[in-house]
Design goal:
By secondary structure, the protein is an alpha+beta fold. The chain is built from eight helices and seven strands. Strand 6 and strand 7 form a beta hairpin.
Length: about 300
């Protein structure tokens, strides 16, 4: 006779325990379904059941990671869309100039002097297209190539001298006076990519100085970093946000920058190269006039052995 009430009590007790065990899980299921439908629901543990709390933490971590990935993907898509739009815009100008001047050349009554002028414009715009294409390919290679590249000890002063030597014809044509001052600790890097970055900075400075102007490459060490600063005595970049200077195709003065022959990608390449070496780059207007671009790269001790990334 005692078995029936005991069994009944046990059954009722099991239902009660089962309810209290299942309730946190049921709540978690409803929250998960709400999150999946797009609602902003907190998945924080409520402390009623340890296993449910652990599951809540896991699901909450997955949800946050998924949201972060979605945001990153949306940002990447916006950047790609903006990049394609910018490239199309940049290509349109030289292509239009080439087409219009080519049409002018088809006029049989065109005077010889205008013939030479239009031919010169076509050649100049073709060269600009070539520079733009090369810069686009270089930027894509730097940003999208995730394969390891060889690193070695790089002496920044020697690198600076090699850049000046390579740019000597351009600098001479623009009547630029160049100077390399100071010393900086060696860095661990890829010489070709670092040379490309410094070349872009010096060549960029040469576009904005007056004939007879000055470009100085200053080197020094600071707080474990090797600093390379490229200074010029040009007009500077005015009130433009320094961070925007490193964006693709950004120009503080679009009309003047096009006149200098720049593609609007040189500084973006510099930023990509420097960040690939765990460094930073920033721009400032000098108090005495002119612009200064400062590259900071992690220094390596004199006894460090070159390695591969």
């Amino acid at each position: 006779m005692l078995l029936v009430p005991t069994g009944l009590a046990t059954f009722v007790l099991s239902l009660i325990i089962g309810h209290f065990l299942a309730e946190p899980l049921n709540v978690l299921v409803k929250k998960t379904e709400a999150v999946r439908s797009g609602s902003d629901v907190s998945l924080a543990p409520d402390g009623r059941l340890h296993e449910a709390d652990e599951l809540s933490k896991t699901i909450d971590s997955l949800v946050k990671k998924t949201k972060s990935q979605q945001i990153d993907l949306a940002l990447k898509e916006r950047r790609q869309s903006a990049f394609v739009s910018d490239v199309a815009h940049e290509l349109r100008t030289p292509l239009t100039a080439i087409r219009d001047n080519a049409e002018m050349l088809s006029d049989p009554d065109l005077p010889p002097e205008l013939h030479d002028k239009f031919c010169s414009i076509i050649v100049g715009e073709s060269e600009r297209l070539s520079r733009l294409t090369n810069d686009l390919l270089a930027l894509q290679r730097i940003e999208n190539d995730h394969t390891p590249f060889e690193l070695q000890r790089v002496n920044l002063k020697g690198l600076a001298h090699s850049v000046i030597d390579a740019l000597e014809p351009i600098l001479r044509d623009r009547e630029a006076n160049t100077e390399i001052v100071g010393e900086a600790p060696d860095v661990l890097g890829n010489p070709d990519r670092l040379k490309q970055a410094v070349t872009n900075l010096v060549e960029n400075a040469s576009r904005f100085i007056d004939p007879g102007g000055h470009i100085t490459i200053e080197l020094f060490g600071l707080r474990g970093n090797s600093i390379l600063a490229v200074k010029d005595d040009g007009p500077g970049f005015g009130d433009a946000d320094p961070k925007l200077l490193f964006d693709r195709f950004y120009r503080a003065d679009a009309s003047r920058s096009r006149g200098t022959g720049g593609t609007g990608l040189g500084l973006a390449i510099v930023k990509s190269v420097v960040e690939a070496h765990d460094g930073t780059v920033e721009a400032i207007n000098l108090p005495e006039g002119g612009a200064c671009f400062i590259v900071a790269l992690p220094s390596i001790p004199a006894e460090a052995v070159p390695a591969k990334a």
